Automatic annotation (TrEMBL):
<dbReference type="InterPro" id="IPR051201">
    <property type="entry name" value="Chloro_Bact_Ser_Proteases"/>
</dbReference>
<dbReference type="InterPro" id="IPR009003">
    <property type="entry name" value="Peptidase_S1_PA"/>
</dbReference>
<dbReference type="Pfam" id="PF13365">
    <property type="entry name" value="Trypsin_2"/>
</dbReference>
<protein>
    <submittedName>
        <fullName>Trypsin-like peptidase domain-containing protein</fullName>
    </submittedName>
</protein>
<comment type="similarity">
    <text>Belongs to the peptidase S1C family.</text>
</comment>
<feature type="domain" description="PDZ">
    <location>
        <begin position="422"/>
        <end position="483"/>
    </location>
</feature>
<feature type="compositionally biased region" description="Low complexity">
    <location>
        <begin position="127"/>
        <end position="139"/>
    </location>
</feature>
<feature type="region of interest" description="Disordered">
    <location>
        <begin position="1"/>
        <end position="146"/>
    </location>
</feature>
<dbReference type="InterPro" id="IPR001940">
    <property type="entry name" value="Peptidase_S1C"/>
</dbReference>
<feature type="transmembrane region" description="Helical">
    <location>
        <begin position="161"/>
        <end position="185"/>
    </location>
</feature>
<keyword id="KW-0472">Membrane</keyword>
<keyword id="KW-0645">Protease</keyword>
<dbReference type="InterPro" id="IPR036034">
    <property type="entry name" value="PDZ_sf"/>
</dbReference>
<dbReference type="Pfam" id="PF13180">
    <property type="entry name" value="PDZ_2"/>
</dbReference>
<keyword id="KW-0812">Transmembrane</keyword>
<feature type="compositionally biased region" description="Low complexity">
    <location>
        <begin position="38"/>
        <end position="65"/>
    </location>
</feature>
<dbReference type="InterPro" id="IPR001478">
    <property type="entry name" value="PDZ"/>
</dbReference>
Length: 522
Protein backbone atom coordinates (compact mmCIF):
# COMPACT_ATOMS: atom_id res chain seq x y z
CA UNK A 1 0.00 0.00 0.00
CA UNK A 2 1.47 3.27 -1.09
CA UNK A 3 1.79 6.28 1.26
CA UNK A 4 3.39 9.69 1.17
CA UNK A 5 7.09 9.60 1.82
CA UNK A 6 8.46 11.86 4.57
CA UNK A 7 12.09 12.83 4.70
CA UNK A 8 12.36 12.05 8.40
CA UNK A 9 10.70 8.65 8.14
CA UNK A 10 12.56 5.57 7.12
CA UNK A 11 11.07 2.45 5.76
CA UNK A 12 12.50 -0.98 5.78
CA UNK A 13 12.92 -0.79 2.01
CA UNK A 14 15.26 2.21 2.18
CA UNK A 15 18.95 1.67 2.75
CA UNK A 16 20.36 5.03 3.86
CA UNK A 17 24.01 4.80 4.73
CA UNK A 18 24.84 5.92 8.29
CA UNK A 19 28.01 7.56 9.49
CA UNK A 20 30.78 5.09 10.08
CA UNK A 21 30.93 3.86 13.65
CA UNK A 22 34.16 2.59 15.15
CA UNK A 23 34.12 -1.17 15.48
CA UNK A 24 30.97 -1.60 13.33
CA UNK A 25 30.56 -3.03 9.82
CA UNK A 26 29.93 -0.24 7.35
CA UNK A 27 27.34 -2.22 5.37
CA UNK A 28 24.99 -2.47 8.37
CA UNK A 29 21.79 -0.44 7.75
CA UNK A 30 20.81 2.52 9.91
CA UNK A 31 17.98 2.01 12.39
CA UNK A 32 14.88 4.25 12.26
CA UNK A 33 14.65 7.29 14.57
CA UNK A 34 13.33 6.27 17.93
CA UNK A 35 10.11 7.71 19.27
CA UNK A 36 9.03 9.60 16.15
CA UNK A 37 5.32 9.92 15.47
CA UNK A 38 3.09 12.31 13.49
CA UNK A 39 2.06 15.44 15.36
CA UNK A 40 -1.47 16.80 15.61
CA UNK A 41 -0.64 19.49 13.09
CA UNK A 42 0.42 16.86 10.56
CA UNK A 43 -1.94 13.89 10.80
CA UNK A 44 -0.84 11.06 8.60
CA UNK A 45 -2.49 7.76 7.93
CA UNK A 46 0.11 5.10 7.93
CA UNK A 47 -0.82 1.67 6.75
CA UNK A 48 0.41 -0.90 9.10
CA UNK A 49 3.13 -3.04 7.68
CA UNK A 50 3.44 -6.74 7.85
CA UNK A 51 3.07 -8.38 11.23
CA UNK A 52 6.28 -8.70 13.17
CA UNK A 53 7.92 -12.04 13.18
CA UNK A 54 7.44 -14.20 16.18
CA UNK A 55 10.18 -13.91 18.77
CA UNK A 56 11.46 -16.80 20.72
CA UNK A 57 10.15 -17.09 24.24
CA UNK A 58 12.24 -16.69 27.33
CA UNK A 59 14.13 -13.53 26.25
CA UNK A 60 13.77 -10.41 28.32
CA UNK A 61 14.20 -6.89 27.10
CA UNK A 62 17.83 -5.98 26.69
CA UNK A 63 18.99 -9.59 27.05
CA UNK A 64 21.50 -10.94 24.51
CA UNK A 65 20.35 -13.37 21.85
CA UNK A 66 21.62 -16.86 21.32
CA UNK A 67 24.65 -15.57 19.47
CA UNK A 68 25.60 -13.36 22.48
CA UNK A 69 24.41 -10.11 20.87
CA UNK A 70 22.49 -7.42 22.72
CA UNK A 71 18.94 -7.24 21.39
CA UNK A 72 18.21 -3.91 23.10
CA UNK A 73 20.70 -1.76 21.21
CA UNK A 74 22.65 -2.09 18.09
CA UNK A 75 25.56 -0.30 16.54
CA UNK A 76 23.13 1.63 14.37
CA UNK A 77 21.17 3.10 17.28
CA UNK A 78 21.59 6.83 17.66
CA UNK A 79 21.83 8.61 21.07
CA UNK A 80 18.18 9.59 20.60
CA UNK A 81 17.23 5.94 20.26
CA UNK A 82 19.01 4.99 23.40
CA UNK A 83 17.67 8.01 25.31
CA UNK A 84 14.14 6.98 24.39
CA UNK A 85 14.56 3.74 26.22
CA UNK A 86 14.85 5.40 29.68
CA UNK A 87 11.09 5.36 30.16
CA UNK A 88 10.65 1.89 28.63
CA UNK A 89 10.52 0.69 24.98
CA UNK A 90 8.98 3.23 22.59
CA UNK A 91 5.49 2.34 21.38
CA UNK A 92 6.69 1.60 17.81
CA UNK A 93 9.46 -0.76 18.97
CA UNK A 94 9.15 -4.32 20.01
CA UNK A 95 9.97 -5.37 23.56
CA UNK A 96 13.21 -6.63 22.15
CA UNK A 97 14.27 -3.30 20.73
CA UNK A 98 13.54 -4.10 17.04
CA UNK A 99 11.45 -1.70 14.94
CA UNK A 100 8.00 -2.81 14.04
CA UNK A 101 7.67 -4.23 10.57
CA UNK A 102 11.37 -4.92 10.30
CA UNK A 103 13.16 -8.15 10.60
CA UNK A 104 16.03 -8.44 13.01
CA UNK A 105 19.22 -7.55 11.26
CA UNK A 106 21.76 -10.27 11.30
CA UNK A 107 25.02 -9.56 13.09
CA UNK A 108 28.36 -10.56 11.73
CA UNK A 109 30.22 -13.16 13.67
CA UNK A 110 33.35 -10.96 13.89
CA UNK A 111 31.46 -8.00 15.40
CA UNK A 112 31.62 -7.67 19.17
CA UNK A 113 28.41 -6.61 20.84
CA UNK A 114 28.84 -3.86 23.48
CA UNK A 115 27.34 -4.99 26.77
CA UNK A 116 24.60 -2.68 28.06
CA UNK A 117 22.61 -2.50 31.23
CA UNK A 118 18.80 -2.82 31.00
CA UNK A 119 16.93 0.45 31.29
CA UNK A 120 14.26 0.64 33.99
CA UNK A 121 10.77 0.33 32.69
CA UNK A 122 9.58 3.32 34.67
CA UNK A 123 10.64 5.86 37.26
CA UNK A 124 9.98 4.20 40.61
CA UNK A 125 9.05 7.58 42.05
CA UNK A 126 6.65 8.49 39.20
CA UNK A 127 2.92 7.99 39.53
CA UNK A 128 0.86 7.13 36.45
CA UNK A 129 -2.08 9.46 35.96
CA UNK A 130 -5.15 8.79 33.81
CA UNK A 131 -4.50 9.83 30.22
CA UNK A 132 -0.74 10.17 30.78
CA UNK A 133 1.33 8.52 28.10
CA UNK A 134 4.36 6.56 29.17
CA UNK A 135 7.46 8.73 29.37
CA UNK A 136 5.50 12.02 29.30
CA UNK A 137 5.48 14.55 32.17
CA UNK A 138 2.26 15.26 34.07
CA UNK A 139 1.01 18.83 34.46
CA UNK A 140 -2.41 18.16 35.86
CA UNK A 141 -3.75 18.25 39.41
CA UNK A 142 -2.69 15.78 41.98
CA UNK A 143 0.36 15.09 44.04
CA UNK A 144 3.40 16.95 42.80
CA UNK A 145 6.68 15.20 42.04
CA UNK A 146 8.97 14.42 44.97
CA UNK A 147 10.78 17.70 45.97
CA UNK A 148 14.50 17.96 45.50
CA UNK A 149 16.52 17.50 48.76
CA UNK A 150 17.95 20.85 49.80
CA UNK A 151 20.12 19.76 52.74
CA UNK A 152 19.59 19.87 56.51
CA UNK A 153 17.31 22.55 57.85
CA UNK A 154 18.83 24.83 60.48
CA UNK A 155 16.48 25.29 63.39
CA UNK A 156 16.96 28.52 65.36
CA UNK A 157 17.64 27.75 69.00
CA UNK A 158 16.87 30.04 71.85
CA UNK A 159 19.98 31.27 73.77
CA UNK A 160 19.99 29.90 77.34
CA UNK A 161 19.41 32.47 80.06
CA UNK A 162 22.69 31.68 81.84
CA UNK A 163 24.71 32.91 78.85
CA UNK A 164 24.02 36.60 79.52
CA UNK A 165 25.31 36.66 83.14
CA UNK A 166 28.38 34.71 82.00
CA UNK A 167 29.06 37.24 79.25
CA UNK A 168 28.65 40.11 81.71
CA UNK A 169 31.04 38.52 84.21
CA UNK A 170 33.60 37.88 81.46
CA UNK A 171 33.39 41.48 80.32
CA UNK A 172 33.87 42.67 83.90
CA UNK A 173 36.95 40.49 84.38
CA UNK A 174 38.44 41.64 81.08
CA UNK A 175 37.83 45.25 82.06
CA UNK A 176 39.51 44.82 85.44
CA UNK A 177 42.52 43.08 83.92
CA UNK A 178 42.77 45.75 81.26
CA UNK A 179 42.69 48.46 83.90
CA UNK A 180 45.42 46.78 85.92
CA UNK A 181 47.58 46.31 82.85
CA UNK A 182 47.05 49.94 81.85
CA UNK A 183 47.96 51.10 85.36
CA UNK A 184 51.13 49.00 85.32
CA UNK A 185 52.11 50.42 81.94
CA UNK A 186 51.40 53.94 83.15
CA UNK A 187 53.51 53.36 86.27
CA UNK A 188 56.30 52.03 84.11
CA UNK A 189 56.13 55.01 81.77
CA UNK A 190 55.92 57.48 84.63
CA UNK A 191 58.75 55.87 86.63
CA UNK A 192 61.63 58.20 87.39
CA UNK A 193 64.49 57.71 84.91
CA UNK A 194 67.49 55.94 86.38
CA UNK A 195 65.58 53.84 88.92
CA UNK A 196 65.88 50.07 89.22
CA UNK A 197 63.34 47.66 90.74
CA UNK A 198 66.11 45.71 92.47
CA UNK A 199 67.81 48.76 93.91
CA UNK A 200 71.53 48.58 94.47
CA UNK A 201 71.47 44.85 93.80
CA UNK A 202 70.18 45.49 90.29
CA UNK A 203 73.13 47.62 89.17
CA UNK A 204 76.69 46.58 88.34
CA UNK A 205 78.84 47.78 91.20
CA UNK A 206 82.52 47.13 91.86
CA UNK A 207 82.65 44.37 94.48
CA UNK A 208 86.37 43.69 94.78
CA UNK A 209 88.77 46.06 96.50
CA UNK A 210 91.33 47.44 94.05
CA UNK A 211 94.21 47.05 96.51
CA UNK A 212 95.36 44.78 99.30
CA UNK A 213 94.05 45.63 102.76
CA UNK A 214 97.60 46.11 104.13
CA UNK A 215 98.58 48.50 101.36
CA UNK A 216 100.48 51.40 102.88
CA UNK A 217 100.74 53.64 99.83
CA UNK A 218 98.52 56.69 99.59
CA UNK A 219 99.77 57.16 96.03
CA UNK A 220 98.44 53.72 95.03
CA UNK A 221 95.05 54.59 96.53
CA UNK A 222 95.02 57.89 94.64
CA UNK A 223 95.76 56.18 91.32
CA UNK A 224 92.98 53.66 91.93
CA UNK A 225 90.27 56.13 93.01
CA UNK A 226 90.83 59.28 90.96
CA UNK A 227 89.13 57.74 87.85
CA UNK A 228 86.05 57.09 90.00
CA UNK A 229 85.89 60.62 91.49
CA UNK A 230 83.99 63.42 89.74
CA UNK A 231 83.43 67.14 90.19
CA UNK A 232 79.85 68.45 90.21
CA UNK A 233 78.78 71.92 89.09
CA UNK A 234 75.12 72.79 89.64
CA UNK A 235 72.78 75.76 89.55
CA UNK A 236 72.35 77.65 92.84
CA UNK A 237 69.46 80.07 93.35
CA UNK A 238 69.09 80.61 89.61
CA UNK A 239 72.81 81.14 89.04
CA UNK A 240 74.29 78.54 86.73
CA UNK A 241 77.37 76.89 88.21
CA UNK A 242 76.81 78.56 91.57
CA UNK A 243 77.21 75.31 93.55
CA UNK A 244 80.26 73.08 93.38
CA UNK A 245 80.87 69.73 94.99
CA UNK A 246 82.18 66.23 94.43
CA UNK A 247 80.90 62.71 93.99
CA UNK A 248 81.92 59.16 93.11
CA UNK A 249 80.75 56.68 90.46
CA UNK A 250 78.50 53.99 91.94
CA UNK A 251 78.07 51.54 89.05
CA UNK A 252 78.51 50.90 85.35
CA UNK A 253 75.04 52.26 84.60
CA UNK A 254 76.34 55.79 85.18
CA UNK A 255 74.94 56.53 88.66
CA UNK A 256 76.87 59.04 90.79
CA UNK A 257 76.51 59.54 94.58
CA UNK A 258 76.87 63.01 96.10
CA UNK A 259 75.48 65.23 98.87
CA UNK A 260 71.94 66.52 98.65
CA UNK A 261 72.97 70.09 99.53
CA UNK A 262 75.17 70.20 96.40
CA UNK A 263 72.26 69.70 93.97
CA UNK A 264 69.20 70.67 96.08
CA UNK A 265 68.70 74.08 94.50
CA UNK A 266 69.14 72.77 90.94
CA UNK A 267 66.74 69.89 91.63
CA UNK A 268 64.02 72.21 92.91
CA UNK A 269 64.40 74.66 90.02
CA UNK A 270 65.06 71.97 87.39
CA UNK A 271 68.38 73.68 86.74
CA UNK A 272 71.37 72.26 84.90
CA UNK A 273 73.78 69.85 86.59
CA UNK A 274 77.16 69.03 85.02
CA UNK A 275 79.49 66.21 86.00
CA UNK A 276 83.20 66.55 85.16
CA UNK A 277 85.19 63.31 85.09
CA UNK A 278 88.90 62.83 85.82
CA UNK A 279 89.76 63.55 82.18
CA UNK A 280 87.92 66.88 82.21
CA UNK A 281 85.00 65.67 80.09
CA UNK A 282 81.74 67.45 80.92
CA UNK A 283 78.60 65.29 81.08
CA UNK A 284 75.02 66.32 81.73
CA UNK A 285 73.26 64.75 84.72
CA UNK A 286 69.78 64.51 86.20
CA UNK A 287 68.64 63.81 89.76
CA UNK A 288 67.26 60.27 90.27
CA UNK A 289 66.34 60.96 93.89
CA UNK A 290 67.60 62.67 97.03
CA UNK A 291 67.21 62.70 100.81
CA UNK A 292 67.59 65.92 102.76
CA UNK A 293 67.48 63.99 106.06
CA UNK A 294 70.55 61.93 105.21
CA UNK A 295 72.08 64.59 102.92
CA UNK A 296 72.46 62.16 100.03
CA UNK A 297 71.52 62.29 96.34
CA UNK A 298 71.86 59.97 93.34
CA UNK A 299 72.48 61.36 89.85
CA UNK A 300 72.11 59.68 86.48
CA UNK A 301 74.88 60.80 84.14
CA UNK A 302 74.26 60.82 80.41
CA UNK A 303 76.95 58.69 78.78
CA UNK A 304 78.30 57.73 82.22
CA UNK A 305 78.37 54.02 81.41
CA UNK A 306 82.07 54.35 80.53
CA UNK A 307 83.01 55.73 83.95
CA UNK A 308 84.84 53.44 86.37
CA UNK A 309 82.82 52.61 89.52
CA UNK A 310 84.39 52.69 92.99
CA UNK A 311 84.32 49.73 95.37
CA UNK A 312 82.22 50.02 98.53
CA UNK A 313 83.74 49.01 101.87
CA UNK A 314 82.57 49.08 105.49
CA UNK A 315 82.91 51.76 108.17
CA UNK A 316 82.02 49.44 111.03
CA UNK A 317 85.44 47.78 110.87
CA UNK A 318 87.27 51.09 111.15
CA UNK A 319 89.21 51.89 114.24
CA UNK A 320 90.24 55.26 115.56
CA UNK A 321 93.66 56.01 114.10
CA UNK A 322 93.18 54.09 110.83
CA UNK A 323 94.53 56.03 107.82
CA UNK A 324 91.94 57.42 105.40
CA UNK A 325 92.13 59.52 102.20
CA UNK A 326 89.64 62.19 101.12
CA UNK A 327 88.93 62.88 97.41
CA UNK A 328 87.14 65.81 95.85
CA UNK A 329 87.32 69.31 94.43
CA UNK A 330 87.78 71.64 97.44
CA UNK A 331 87.31 75.29 96.51
CA UNK A 332 86.75 74.20 92.90
CA UNK A 333 90.16 72.47 92.64
CA UNK A 334 89.31 69.18 90.94
CA UNK A 335 91.15 65.90 91.50
CA UNK A 336 92.41 66.88 94.95
CA UNK A 337 93.62 64.24 97.41
CA UNK A 338 94.14 64.77 101.16
CA UNK A 339 95.01 62.17 103.79
CA UNK A 340 94.57 61.77 107.53
CA UNK A 341 93.28 59.36 110.12
CA UNK A 342 89.98 58.39 111.69
CA UNK A 343 89.59 60.85 114.56
CA UNK A 344 86.34 59.44 116.01
CA UNK A 345 83.45 57.06 115.24
CA UNK A 346 79.67 57.39 115.76
CA UNK A 347 79.90 61.15 116.17
CA UNK A 348 76.42 62.72 116.21
CA UNK A 349 76.45 65.66 113.80
CA UNK A 350 73.71 67.87 112.44
CA UNK A 351 73.62 70.30 109.55
CA UNK A 352 70.84 72.84 109.84
CA UNK A 353 68.25 73.15 107.10
CA UNK A 354 65.29 75.39 106.47
CA UNK A 355 63.04 73.09 108.56
CA UNK A 356 63.38 70.28 111.06
CA UNK A 357 62.88 67.68 108.34
CA UNK A 358 65.54 69.33 106.17
CA UNK A 359 68.15 69.08 108.89
CA UNK A 360 70.68 66.31 108.36
CA UNK A 361 71.60 64.17 111.36
CA UNK A 362 74.68 62.06 110.79
CA UNK A 363 76.18 59.31 112.89
CA UNK A 364 79.47 60.39 111.36
CA UNK A 365 82.99 59.16 110.85
CA UNK A 366 85.23 61.99 112.04
CA UNK A 367 88.56 62.59 110.29
CA UNK A 368 91.40 65.09 110.36
CA UNK A 369 91.95 64.78 106.60
CA UNK A 370 91.63 68.25 105.10
CA UNK A 371 88.00 68.77 103.97
CA UNK A 372 86.92 72.12 102.56
CA UNK A 373 83.92 73.50 100.73
CA UNK A 374 83.83 71.60 97.42
CA UNK A 375 84.81 68.30 99.06
CA UNK A 376 81.14 67.70 99.86
CA UNK A 377 79.92 64.45 98.28
CA UNK A 378 83.41 63.13 97.62
CA UNK A 379 84.52 59.68 98.89
CA UNK A 380 86.44 58.95 102.08
CA UNK A 381 88.57 55.89 101.28
CA UNK A 382 90.59 53.34 103.26
CA UNK A 383 94.01 52.04 102.22
CA UNK A 384 92.41 49.13 100.29
CA UNK A 385 90.81 51.68 97.97
CA UNK A 386 87.26 51.09 99.29
CA UNK A 387 84.79 53.89 100.00
CA UNK A 388 83.98 53.95 103.74
CA UNK A 389 82.08 57.27 103.86
CA UNK A 390 80.84 60.33 101.99
CA UNK A 391 82.39 63.67 102.99
CA UNK A 392 79.51 65.84 104.10
CA UNK A 393 80.32 68.45 106.73
CA UNK A 394 83.08 70.31 108.46
CA UNK A 395 83.35 72.00 111.82
CA UNK A 396 83.96 75.73 111.58
CA UNK A 397 85.30 78.35 113.94
CA UNK A 398 82.16 80.46 113.56
CA UNK A 399 83.35 82.68 110.70
CA UNK A 400 80.94 85.12 109.14
CA UNK A 401 80.53 83.04 106.06
CA UNK A 402 80.00 79.83 107.99
CA UNK A 403 82.59 78.23 105.72
CA UNK A 404 85.86 79.24 107.30
CA UNK A 405 87.60 76.17 105.86
CA UNK A 406 89.45 73.22 107.28
CA UNK A 407 90.47 73.31 110.91
CA UNK A 408 91.22 69.59 111.07
CA UNK A 409 87.70 68.35 111.88
CA UNK A 410 85.62 66.86 109.11
CA UNK A 411 82.71 64.44 109.03
CA UNK A 412 81.62 61.74 106.62
CA UNK A 413 78.38 59.78 106.32
CA UNK A 414 79.06 56.07 107.08
CA UNK A 415 78.92 53.87 103.97
CA UNK A 416 76.32 51.61 105.63
CA UNK A 417 73.85 54.49 105.72
CA UNK A 418 74.81 55.39 102.15
CA UNK A 419 74.00 51.87 100.98
CA UNK A 420 70.57 51.93 102.63
CA UNK A 421 69.53 55.34 101.32
CA UNK A 422 70.92 54.80 97.81
CA UNK A 423 69.10 51.47 97.58
CA UNK A 424 65.79 53.17 98.41
CA UNK A 425 66.41 55.95 95.89
CA UNK A 426 67.28 53.49 93.13
CA UNK A 427 64.10 51.53 93.78
CA UNK A 428 61.56 54.35 94.02
CA UNK A 429 63.35 57.67 93.53
CA UNK A 430 62.66 58.48 97.20
CA UNK A 431 64.07 57.63 100.62
CA UNK A 432 62.37 57.03 103.95
CA UNK A 433 63.67 57.64 107.44
CA UNK A 434 62.35 56.22 110.75
CA UNK A 435 60.38 58.27 113.27
CA UNK A 436 58.76 57.63 116.64
CA UNK A 437 56.24 60.49 116.57
CA UNK A 438 57.66 62.55 119.47
CA UNK A 439 59.45 65.88 119.79
CA UNK A 440 62.65 66.06 121.83
CA UNK A 441 64.68 68.91 123.22
CA UNK A 442 67.80 69.48 121.07
CA UNK A 443 69.20 72.56 122.83
CA UNK A 444 72.46 72.15 124.70
CA UNK A 445 71.86 71.32 128.38
CA UNK A 446 75.09 70.62 130.23
CA UNK A 447 73.35 68.72 132.99
CA UNK A 448 71.25 66.57 130.61
CA UNK A 449 71.67 62.83 130.97
CA UNK A 450 69.47 61.90 128.02
CA UNK A 451 66.90 63.13 125.49
CA UNK A 452 63.89 64.80 127.06
CA UNK A 453 60.53 64.33 125.29
CA UNK A 454 58.64 67.62 124.91
CA UNK A 455 55.56 66.32 123.02
CA UNK A 456 54.00 63.00 122.00
CA UNK A 457 51.78 63.07 118.90
CA UNK A 458 48.56 60.98 118.89
CA UNK A 459 48.39 57.65 117.08
CA UNK A 460 52.15 57.35 116.75
CA UNK A 461 54.68 54.67 117.73
CA UNK A 462 55.64 56.75 120.79
CA UNK A 463 52.04 56.90 122.05
CA UNK A 464 51.44 53.19 121.38
CA UNK A 465 54.63 52.38 123.31
CA UNK A 466 53.37 54.37 126.33
CA UNK A 467 55.87 57.25 126.13
CA UNK A 468 54.79 60.53 127.76
CA UNK A 469 55.87 64.12 127.94
CA UNK A 470 58.96 64.76 130.13
CA UNK A 471 60.12 61.17 129.80
CA UNK A 472 63.92 61.00 129.46
CA UNK A 473 65.35 58.43 127.02
CA UNK A 474 68.83 57.38 128.10
CA UNK A 475 69.64 54.53 125.68
CA UNK A 476 68.56 52.95 122.40
CA UNK A 477 69.46 49.26 122.04
CA UNK A 478 72.13 49.59 124.74
CA UNK A 479 73.67 52.61 122.93
CA UNK A 480 73.91 55.54 125.35
CA UNK A 481 71.99 58.69 124.44
CA UNK A 482 73.29 62.00 125.80
CA UNK A 483 70.87 64.50 124.20
CA UNK A 484 68.15 64.97 121.63
CA UNK A 485 70.55 64.96 118.62
CA UNK A 486 72.07 61.68 119.79
CA UNK A 487 68.56 60.18 120.09
CA UNK A 488 67.63 61.26 116.54
CA UNK A 489 70.90 59.90 115.12
CA UNK A 490 70.46 56.61 116.98
CA UNK A 491 66.92 56.19 115.63
CA UNK A 492 67.91 57.08 112.06
CA UNK A 493 70.49 54.35 111.91
CA UNK A 494 67.54 51.93 111.73
CA UNK A 495 64.89 51.32 109.11
CA UNK A 496 61.13 52.00 109.16
CA UNK A 497 59.40 48.95 110.59
CA UNK A 498 62.25 48.01 112.90
CA UNK A 499 61.52 47.55 116.58
CA UNK A 500 63.98 49.20 118.97
CA UNK A 501 64.37 48.91 122.72
CA UNK A 502 64.51 52.19 124.67
CA UNK A 503 65.52 52.83 128.25
CA UNK A 504 63.23 55.49 129.74
CA UNK A 505 63.41 57.36 133.06
CA UNK A 506 60.08 58.60 134.45
CA UNK A 507 59.76 60.04 137.93
CA UNK A 508 63.15 58.70 138.91
CA UNK A 509 62.29 55.15 137.87
CA UNK A 510 63.82 53.46 134.80
CA UNK A 511 61.81 51.23 132.51
CA UNK A 512 62.32 49.60 129.10
CA UNK A 513 59.79 49.97 126.27
CA UNK A 514 59.55 48.47 122.79
CA UNK A 515 58.92 50.96 119.99
CA UNK A 516 58.07 49.94 116.41
CA UNK A 517 59.43 52.68 114.16
CA UNK A 518 57.23 54.38 111.60
CA UNK A 519 58.49 55.76 108.28
CA UNK A 520 58.44 59.13 106.59
CA UNK A 521 59.72 60.27 103.21
CA UNK A 522 62.49 62.85 103.34
Amino acid sequence: MSHEHRPDEQTPDEQVPDQPVAGAHQEEPTQPLAGWRPTAAEPEAVEPGPAPAAQPEGRAYGAPDDAGHDAGAGPGDTPSDQAGMLGGPPPHRTPFGEPQGASPQPRLDHEAAAPTLPYPTQDPYAQQRPGQQPGQPWFGPGPQPRPTYAGPVTVARRIPLWVWPAVACLALVVGILGGLAGGAIQDELSARPGTNDNGINGVRTQTAAPLEADNGSVAAVAQALLPSTVQIVAELDGREGGATGSGFVLDREGHVVTNNHVVASAAEDDGPIVVIDHQGQRLEATVVGRSSVYDLAVLSVEGGGKLEPAALGASQVLRVGDPVIAFGAPLGLSQTVTSGIVSALNRPVTTSGQSEDDSSYINAVQTDAAINPGNSGGPLVNLAGEVVGVNSAIATNGGASGEAGNIGVGFAIPIEQVRTTVDQILRTGKAEYPVIGAQVRTGGEPDSEGATITEVMPDTPAERAGLEKDDVITAVDDQPVSDGIALIVAIRTHLPGDTVEMSVVRGGEERVVQVELDGKVG
